[in-house]
Structure formats: structure tokens, C-alpha cells
Amino acid sequence: MTLPGGAKAWQGRLRGRTAPGLEDYTHSLDADRAYWREDLAGSRAHARMLRAVGVLAGHELRAIEQGLDRIRAELEGDRFPFAPGDEDIHMAVERRLIELVGTPGAKLHTGRSRNDQVALDLRLFARRAQVDLAGRLVEVQAVLLRRAREHRRTLLAGYTHLQRAQPTTLAHHLLAYIEMLQRDLGRLLDAHRRTDVSPLGSGALCGTTLPIDREAVARDLGFAQITANSLDAVGDRDFAVETVFACALCAGHGSRLAEEMVLWSSAEFGFVQLPDAWATGSSLMPQKKNPDVFELLRARAGRVLGDLVACLAILKGLPLSYNRDLQEATPPLLDAVATTLAGLTMLAEVLAAVHFDQERMAEAAGDPQLLATDVAEHLVRQGVPFREAHAIVGRAVRTALRRRISLADLDLADWQRLHPGASADLLLLFDAEDGLRRRELPGGPGPRTVGRALQRADLLIRRNRRQVELLEARLP
Question: Contact 31/328 with Cβ under 8 angstroms?
């Protein structure tokens, strides 16, 4: 903030004007203007508290609130008159408030420092971002559940090492992503509990001698509690790192799903077709239909991971309490939140639109080799040690490959040459749907188990929505 004569609000001890290069290098307005709403909310709550403890008169509070209302309208309408000397959103708002209401505006900063003001604004932003991210996660879960219900009995080859492994269902596969996102939601809600602490009143590092009421401001802004140590309060950005970490892991899960969609939409798999509205083409090759949206989801997860590394690197060696380095933790936080929110929005919309080719999936899942483990376990039930059974079936697979036939095409004589005790019921094991019915264990892909999992997911999502609604209600 620039005062009359060109001096800065913090320049009382310094002589002369600051160098233009220093101003350009140290300003953060391009980043922190993203949370102007939080700055206005914090300033309004602080002003109300100052009135309650007698620092402001009633007419001064009214003037401040009217000024903040005017500033809000200017910012919302993109009409706010930013000045060249505005270092950040906090100083810009304070300068404008003084321009609008005079002396009462100059009293607003009483009892607070930019250090605890910034910490408060960032916590307000992170708290809102966590709730927004949680809500968006639940939306993706709901789409996954709807698609899983549609494909409860759609056969799908399960993969390990990107090689066909055992038969499953598309529903079971999509439910796995609901579980991943549930863990992401848990991390966000857990981070929210530690973010939900008001640092305002910690001052620059050691509070103030004025009779402020920290608890009143915290209640006004919907915080669950206040920070316990003023040094930690202004130097802490753990809540930002935790938010970015939750974003990074969430984006990583989205990237895994995006990678599968890229693979599945290829001609080699053919499991998925993207609607034309969600695909792109080639400027050279007329036949191309590209899954760019999934490729960008995959790539941008790497950007969020970079945001996490940046935050950790910025914080790793700072002495207590406040250091200007902390300013640099804001852009990674903003980028991680925005990128993850956009990615979750895309996932919800595209997953709702993709077409799953059930015939191609069933064809891959119907490969008899995917039931080789079932044969080995059938032999185990007849008393054959598992390692011996594994070797017997492995030799059977090798025999089928050498003769260029499927495992199901081996006859009883073939099996008895490998294991004299083989019985005719072994030949009945090569149906994928029967294989699924043999897997009715908790967490498995059996039809009844998947049915119960769909019910559980429905209850989970309903509970998640309620949690998000309750958190939203507490936000200022």
C-alpha cells in the first residue's frame, strides 16, 4: 500500500522510495488476488471484533462495512482500481478502503499484522477449497456408481502388468475407483480439521497489547478453534501442503483412470468409444479420433505433483516465525486446487458420456487362460499341493500355446497326461461367468458381492454428500 508522498505502509523506518525493481520482484498481487473474498471476510470480522472491544466507534464500523461492500462490488464487477504500488490484495484493499472512508479505514489494521492476515486468508481459502474439492469428488463417485450399476454384469478382463489376468466385471472395476476417491475425500476432510483453526490475533509473531478477542473472530468466521502459539500461527503452511498433497494424490488417481481410458479407446483394446463431442481429430490424418481430454488429465496430474514438491521445498528450512519465502507457497496451492477441480469436473462429464463396448470386453474376458488359476485351485481342492497344481496348469498352458489352441480345447486325456488324477469336471471350469460366481468373497467380483458393494457405495455417497453440505453450511 502506498501512502501520500509515495511511501509504503511499512516504510516508517526506511528513507526514500523503494527501487522499482524491488517492487516488481516482491509483489504478489497476481497470485493472491484470487482470494480477495477471503480477505474481505476476514477484514469484516476483524472490524466487528474491534467495535465489540471498544477500539472502533459504531459509526466507524458502519463506514468500514460500507467501504468493504463497495470494494466487493468493484472486485466482483472487475472495476477495482488497482494502483501501481499495490503489493498484494491485502494492501490494495486497505488502500482503497482509506480512499473511500478515510480515518476509519486507517484503523482497520489495528491489532493485526499482514502476517496473521495472510495466514487467515489462506486458511479461509484452503478451507473453502477443501469443501469444493470434496463436493466435486462426490460428483465423480456418483457418476462412477451410475455407470457401475449399468454394467453390473458386463464382463471385463482384469489385468496385472498390463497383461490379461483374471475375469472381473466393469462394475467391480469402476467400484475400485470409488474406493480410491473415498480415500481422497478422507484426506481432504482430515486436512480440513487442521485447517479449521484461526490464526488472527497472532500479529506479526507475538500478538498485540490491545484487548482483542480472538475467539470472537474465530466464531464469526466459522472456525472450530484458534491457534495455540503465535509463532507457529504465522509461520505455518502445513495446511496448504496437506491440501496440495490431497490434490496430488487425487489427481494421480484421476490420471490412472485417464490412462485406462486412453488404452481402452485404442483399436488394440476397443473397450471404450468416446463421443465425438469429447474427442479431437488430427490436422493431418483424417481417420484419427483422439482422447485428448484424458491425455491432458494425465499430464496435469504431474503439474499438481510439482506443486507439492514446490511447497515442501519452500518450507523445509525456514526458521521461526514468518519469512517472506512463505509468499511463494501461495501459487502452488492455487494451481493445485484449480487444476484438480477442473480435472474432477472433466472426469465427471466425460465418464458420464463414454460408451463401453460390452462385446469387446466380454471377448477379452472370455479368454480361457484367465481361468488358469481356477483350475489350479480345483486341483488343490482334490488334495494337490498348490505349488504342484500351479506347475501342472503352467505345463497345460505351455501345451496349448505350442499347439495353438485355447486352454479350454485341451481334452481330458491331455489333462490326465499332466496329472493322472484329473477328472472330467475340470473341463467345466472355463466359463468366465461361472468363474465370477465362484468368487463370492468379501471384496471380490462375485455377482452377489458386487450387488452388495453397489448398495454400500450408494450409502457411502449419500453420507459423503451430507458431510459436504454440513461443512459448506459452516463457511462464511
Answer: no
> Cα 79–83–88 angle (5° rounding)?
95
Q: Which of 334, 427, 310 is nearest to 378 (CA)?
A: 427
Give the CATH H-level superfamily of domain 20-110.
Answer: Fumarase/aspartase (N-terminal domain) (1.10.275.10)
Give the sign of the dihedral formed by CA 440, CA 446, CA 451, CA 454: positive
Ranges of beta strands (E only) in 182-304 are: 197-198, 225-226, 272-273
**Is there a contact between 66 and 58 (Cβ–Cβ < 8 Å)?**
no
Confirm whether 255 is a catalytic residue: no
Where are the CATH 1.20.200.10 domain residues in the chain? 115-154+167-362+454-474
Structural contact between residues 171 and 124, judged by C-beta atoms closer than 8 angstroms: no
CATH 1.10.275.10 in the chain, residues?
20-110
> What is the full per-residue pLDDT of the chain (476 aa) written as tens digits?
555 444 555 455 566 677 777 677 767 898 889 999 999 999 999 999 999 999 999 999 999 999 999 999 999 999 999 998 898 999 999 999 999 999 999 999 999 999 999 999 999 999 999 999 999 999 999 999 999 999 999 999 999 999 999 999 999 999 999 999 999 999 999 999 999 999 999 999 999 999 999 999 999 999 999 999 999 999 999 999 999 999 999 999 999 999 999 999 999 999 999 999 999 999 999 999 999 999 999 999 999 999 999 999 999 999 999 999 999 999 999 999 999 999 999 999 999 999 999 999 999 999 999 999 999 999 999 999 999 999 999 999 999 999 999 999 999 999 999 999 999 999 999 999 999 999 999 999 999 999 999 999 999 999 999 999 999 999 98
Q: Is 282 considered catalytic here?
A: yes
Query: Into which CATH architecture does domain 115-154+167-362+454-474 fall?
Result: Up-down Bundle (1.20)
- The active-site residue out of 266, 282, 355, 423 is 282
- Its CATH architecture, for the domain 367-437, is Orthogonal Bundle (1.10)
Task: Catalytic residue, from 28, 46, 161, 253: name it.
Answer: 161
pTM of the model: 0.93
Whether the Cβ atoms of residue 458 and residue 145 lie closer than 8 Å to each other: yes
